[in-house]
Amino acid sequence: MSGEEKLLCYNRGCAKQYVESENSEDVCIHHPGMPVFHDALKGWSCCQRRVTDFTEFLNITGCRKSKHSNMKPAEPEVKPSNPVEITSHGQTTHRKAVEKVQEPRPSDDLPYQRLKFSISDSLKKALEKHKQSRTTNDENTDPGVVQKGTTCKNNACNGVYVDEESNKQACQYHPGNPIFHEGYKFWSCCLRRTCDFDEFLKQEGCSSGSHLWFLTDEQKKKAVTCRFDHYQMGSSVIISVYAKLCDPEKSFVEANCTCLRAGLVFGNSSKFDLDIKLHGVIYPDKSVVTYSATKVEIKLKKKEASNWPRLELQSPNS
């Protein structure tokens, strides 16, 4: 039995591994239906339960028991429906469906407008607590003494202060600013470009120098990197920027029909700038921003409820 090949169950909502000798009639709990996404609600066609959160949807327990199956379920066949026309002789014919004319993309130079936003209660409480904590630390900490565990503030350096020997270690860092443009991510001081955010974060610094344990007020306003991702839900595309303790009073998110830009101030006055040329067209007046304690969520309303192959519009040469 230990040498028996493990198979992956492809029943929807299961995805467990199994061995055929233990595959009985009630070991697999799955959904025989299809995913249903309608008016921000998510569920399965075989169940009545509906949720709004995508993670909750993925965790909805299956409604049927059966054997595991390593055969992928067939996708439903979608047949094009052409209009029916009855001729004067009583014959039935099918007219060819009229192809939708592609509307021209609006200009990227249209005026930007600030997006409506809301602030979660958790962020309001966290910001107040953070403000009090910073006041206490400023009163009790000697500004000239580096505390053990302090991290280097230079871009791309992971140095941590342990003792005086830490000052003798070389600091490999990027002196420039992070730039996100037309799907590319790079540093203004380097020529190396990548489309993958994780690869961008791993890029070794292009300059060598001394560690920077303290930031001046001016340096704190300098742009830093911040992880962000996105997912799509019907007529919306949701961008999550993982900026903890973002200050809505000092931040902004604005857009026109084809572009999005943001300036987020978070943590200890760190600043993250985002400037994206969107793949599709949106309605800025129907798009909203939610500031929470751990992230900033930007929900963009698509003009057409079709899937975007990517978030950013790529240049013809890429």
UniProtKB/TrEMBL annotation:
<dbReference type="InterPro" id="IPR007052">
    <property type="entry name" value="CS_dom"/>
</dbReference>
<feature type="region of interest" description="Disordered">
    <location>
        <begin position="66"/>
        <end position="111"/>
    </location>
</feature>
<dbReference type="InterPro" id="IPR008978">
    <property type="entry name" value="HSP20-like_chaperone"/>
</dbReference>
<dbReference type="InterPro" id="IPR039790">
    <property type="entry name" value="CHRD1"/>
</dbReference>
<dbReference type="Pfam" id="PF04968">
    <property type="entry name" value="CHORD"/>
</dbReference>
<feature type="compositionally biased region" description="Basic and acidic residues">
    <location>
        <begin position="96"/>
        <end position="108"/>
    </location>
</feature>
<protein>
    <submittedName>
        <fullName>Uncharacterized protein</fullName>
    </submittedName>
</protein>
<dbReference type="InterPro" id="IPR007051">
    <property type="entry name" value="CHORD_dom"/>
</dbReference>
<dbReference type="Pfam" id="PF04969">
    <property type="entry name" value="CS"/>
</dbReference>
